[in-house]
Amino acid sequence: MAISCDIIKDLIPLYIDDVCSDDAKKAVEKHTASCGKCRKYLDGLSKNALPGKLSKEEIRLEQEPFKKVRVSNIIKMLAAVALTAWLIFAVLMTGQFMVEEIQPLQEFFSPVYHSHIEFDEPSDWVTLSFYKNNAPLETSETIQFDSIFFDRCITNHANNSGALHFRVKDENGNIVLDDVEIREGRFYDGKETFDRKTKYTIEVSGEPGHYVITLS
Asked: CA separation (Å) from 133 to 43, 51, 70, 138, 210?
């Protein structure tokens, strides 16, 4: 019995996928050998059919170009990160060098008052003279924390001879800090005591010895 073209067309997809019986295969092959339309239909589906399973080697060869692209992208990304880190480091080092070596920048970003005093005998209150940053020839008995970069701290240096007692007066002579002891290597945090608009006078008393005091 002859098989119609419609049945053969239904069998052709199964034939291409190799999931039909041997009898169905023989029927498709016999029919398409003599039917041009069905043969054309078979050829068309065969060209558009999905490929079968690839071998491991075929898969490796297919993936190889993409692996190279991924490796290349990773290298580029790491290079970009390294370059960015280097640029940041260079900017920070340049900025630090400029602040340390250029006096106006140092005075602006790291303002510090320095004072040196030496007691030959136990001393009562003595008014300190200060110089700002690296200008020891320009001394003053009043200071002002007029920069936002001031921490408003009084430091008694660690190498000093001992503790010092501090008294601070404002420009009107009012005592704003009365007889506060600061031991060597310690500091007084004056954020709550000193403002940025007032000029202050600082007095100290202590035992014999050499002392270095900074206000930062």
From this structure: 91, 80, 55, 10, 20
